[in-house]
Specification:
The complex is a heterodimer of chains A (101) and B (389). Chain A has 101 residues and is mainly β. Chain A folds into two domains: 31 residues, no CATH class; 61 residues, OB fold (Dihydrolipoamide Acetyltransferase, E2P), CATH 2.40.50.840. Chain A is built from no helices and eight strands. In chain A, the strands form two sheets. Chain A has a five-stranded antiparallel β-sheet with strand order 6-5-4-7-8, with no helix packed on it. In chain A, strands 2-1-3 form a three-stranded antiparallel β-sheet, with no helix packed on it. In chain A, strand 7 and strand 8 form a beta hairpin. Chain B has two domains: 131 residues, 3-Layer(aba) Sandwich (Peroxisomal Thiolase, Chain A, domain 1); 237 residues, Peroxisomal Thiolase, Chain A, domain 1 (3-Layer(aba) Sandwich). Chain B has 389 residues and is an alpha/beta fold. Chain B is 33% helix and 17% strand. Chain B is globular and about 55 Å long. In chain B, the strands form two sheets. Chain B has a nine-stranded mixed β-sheet, sandwiched between helices. Chain B has a two-stranded antiparallel ribbon with strand order 5-6. Classes of the chains: A mainly beta (101), B alpha/beta (389).
Chain lengths: 101, 389
């Protein structure tokens, strides 16, 4: 599994999560598109409601749509709005981590 | 069709309990219903419309209609989360205007403190809900989705944790006059900043309380209101809107209040500058900041500066907000604060708020609620209310 997007063949826009019909124009002509797995952090929160803090985030993919995820394998001080991130899958779940320079 | 002036809020009642280990959910609903009807000077026999939401026991309005022995000709079980009772007032006004009922009872109650139930949050985990597979694995909570709203607001507009804290400080200044408030102690900005981080940047004192209890409202035809021995509170405008993650076009900087607010003001024929008192849903401090902007009390991005330095404190600032102490200090029954927002607005319009927080000559008030999460999908509902006699 990577991150699957819905590409609308009628209006040309890409959406997430993928579905039929297109949430923008209502067309049922949707082609599944795999995202490249790169993007930037739109917003995030270091969450302390657990034994170990974890980072929830919205990441805006290079293709356009923004999705909910966790930022993993990244020191908290390197996590910021607009920081570049890349896909890292774990048990089929799409997490993201800071892009190594 | 406009509902301006089509209905009046004749009864309002807030349950005094904040913890109800020995009172059933059905009894809480029955007690708040009886309280609001007594407040209006009406009885269960007068009710011909029932408006409830997801916190009610059973299937929508069916169980309570039967349980309370009502003879209704109109029912409405619209569920928009915490904003449901505010939506219900608008829907009741529509039904009354259409002649479908003349005495509408709205109830809300719950026991999330004494008896938390998986039913309270089923929609976050049920695999038949389409967004669940794309959100549940990431351990989203109510707090951390609102925290992402706060983070983005800080990034785009320079809003600070100190500014957010002022919302809590104002609530605490009001709550000290409320004998039923869960948290009646005055706090400072520093107290908020020193409280533990729940979901960065939100601290524990940025979050509302979890409480049992409830409240109820009675909305009636103006002809009935004229025959009652209570000040008349007229529904001048009402609107609702839904906003979500929009197929991935996520924008956390504004809420559905940006749609429901202007629509309600237009129907009422007034502007934010005319409002003397505002009940603004305060699940978190950031909730108030975003909604105040969206409702037009200040420009987008100026909410942090607007709430600072006591501007929301009655008798101190320019816009008294949540003079009962709000969800941040008073109560948040059933994890749904909408009904208390309307109740305090009614108190202010009647001149029945605590004298220490009563707004002088309060003849126009607003109640606005958010149900769901500003960080994912939510419904905003706005009411403009006026005292006419």
């Amino acid at each position: 599994m990577s991150v699957r997007l819905g590409g609308c063949e009628a209006c040309g826009h890409v959406h997430h999560y993928p579905r039929v019909p297109c949430p923008f124009c209502g067309s049922d002509r949707i082609a599944w598109v795999d995202a490249r797995g790169t993007g930037r952090i739109y917003s995030y929160s270091v969450t302390h409601q657990a034994s170990e803090p974890y980072v929830i985030a919205y990441v805006t993919l290079t293709e356009g749509p923004t999705l909910m995820t966790n930022i993993v394998d990244t020191p908290h001080e390197e996590i910021a709005v607009d920081a570049e991130v890349e896909l890292v899958e774990r048990d089929g779940v799409p997490f993201f981590r800071g892009t190594r320079a | 069709m406009s509902i301006r002036g089509a209905a009046c809020i004749a009864g309002a009642y807030e349950h005094p309990l904040r913890k109800a280990p020995d009172t059933s959910l059905a009894d809480l609903h029955a007690q708040v219903a009886a309280g609001a009807l007594a407040d209006a000077g009406l009885t269960f026999a007068d009710v011909d419309g029932l408006f409830v939401s997801g916190d009610a026991p059973g299937i929508g309005a069916l169980t309570l209609t039967d349980h309370l022995g009502l003879r209704v000709r109109h029912v409405d079980s619209t569920d928009t989360g915490g904003s449901s009772p505010i939506v219900a007032v608008g829907h009741a006004a529509q039904a009354i205007a259409a002649g479908k009922c003349s005495v509408a009872l709205i109830t809300l109650a719950g026991r999330p403190r004494s008896a938390p139930s998986p039913r309270d949050w089923w929609f976050l985990e049920d695999p038949s809900v389409p967004e669940v597979p794309y959100e549940l694995p990431f351990r989203h909570t109510v707090a951390n989705t609102y925290a992402m709203v706060a983070r983005r607001h800080m990034h785009e507009f320079g809003t600070t944790s100190e500014q957010l804290a002022w919302v809590k400080v104002a609530a605490s200044h009001h709550a000290r006059h409320n004998p039923h408030a869960m948290l009646p102690k005055v706090v400072t900005v520093q107290d908020v900043l020193d409280s533990p981080l729940v979901a960065d940047p939100l601290h524990r004192l940025d979050c509302c309380v979890v409480s049992d209890g409830g409240g109820a409202l009675v909305v009636v035809h103006p002809d009935i209101a004229r025959g009652l021995d209570r000040p008349t509170v007229v529904v001048r405008g009402a609107a609702e809107a839904v906003k979500g993650i929009a197929g991935g076009r996520v924008d956390l900087t504004w809420s559905a209040g940006a749609i429901s607010g202007p629509a309600a003001f237009e129907e009422a024929g007034v502007t934010p500058a005319d409002v003397k008192y505002a009940s603004i849903y305060d699940s978190f401090t950031i909730t108030v900041v975003v909604q105040l902007e969206d409702l037009g009390f200040c420009a987008k991005g100026e909410g942090g500066r607007f709430v600072a330095d006591g501007n929301l404190i009655s008798g101190v600032g320019g816009l008294p907000v949540n003079t009962d102490g709000g969800g941040l200090c008073n109560n948040h029954p059933a994890n749904r604060g909408g009904v208390t927002k309307v109740i305090e607005a009614v108190r202010q319009l009647r001149g029945e708020a605590h004298p220490a927080v009563q707004v002088p000559d309060c003849d126009l008030a607003l109640a606005h609620g958010t149900g769901g999460s500003l960080g994912t999908r939510h419904a905003g509902a706005t009411l403009v209310l006026e005292r006419t006699a």
